Amino acid sequence: MAKTILIVDDSASLRQVVGIALRSAGYDVIEACDGQDALGKLTGQRVHLIISDVNMPNMDGISLVKAVKQLQAYKFTPIVMLTTESQDAKKKAGQEAGAKAWVVKPFRPDQLLVVVQKLVLP
């Protein structure tokens, strides 16, 4: 059975690029345009990994990580931040919130897949 990954980014083109890379590697993909949209799509189904941007309208990525960690069904779901942010303070905030990895844009899809394969839940 394919593993499911939730991509959260306000850029439709970025969701498309990440989605193509993940689908070609055999993953099922759910897309959300911001943190609030993502929370609305976490309805109890199994999600093996979340990839989220940091800077988004309505609910940013760090707030999303904190909210996901409060959900019983998803508190152990690994979250990868995929962002243009490279400041240590932002990375620290992400780690403290519960993010497992930080990938800086622009990224290479093969690099992202290496991170995904390491972190995706069994």
Describe it for me?
Helix 1 (12-24) crosses helix 5 and helix 2 runs parallel beside helix 3. The chain is built from five helices and five strands, in the order E-H-E-H-E-H-E-H-E-H. Helices cover 41% and strands 19% of the residues. The protein has a single domain, classed as Rossmann fold, CATH 3.40.50. It is α/β, with parallel strands linked by helices and 122 residues long. The mean pLDDT is 97. Strands 2-1-3-4-5 form a five-stranded parallel sheet, sandwiched between helices. The longest helix is centred in the N-terminal third of the chain and has 13 residues, at 12-24.
Key descriptive features of the protein:
122 residues, alpha/beta, five-stranded parallel β-sheet, Bact_response_regulator, CheY-like_superfamily, Sig_transdc_resp-reg_receiver, phosphoprotein, Response regulator
Topology, pairings included?
Layout lengths: L3 E5 L3 H13 L3 E5 L2 H7 L7 E4 L8 H9 L9 E5 L4 H10 L3 E4 L4 H11 L3
Parallel strand pairs: 1-2, 1-3, 3-4, 4-5
**Per CATH, which architecture?**
3-Layer(aba) Sandwich
Number of separate structural domains: 1
CATH fold name, please? Rossmann fold
Under CATH, the homologous superfamily reads Response regulator
| Beta content | 15-25%
What ranges have pLDDT less than 50 throughout 5 or more consecutive residues?
none
What spatial form do the alpha-carbon principal axes imply? globular
SS elements, strand count: 5
Modified residues (4-aspartylphosphate): 53
Protein name: Response regulator
Keywords: Phosphoprotein
Domain Response regulatory: 4-120
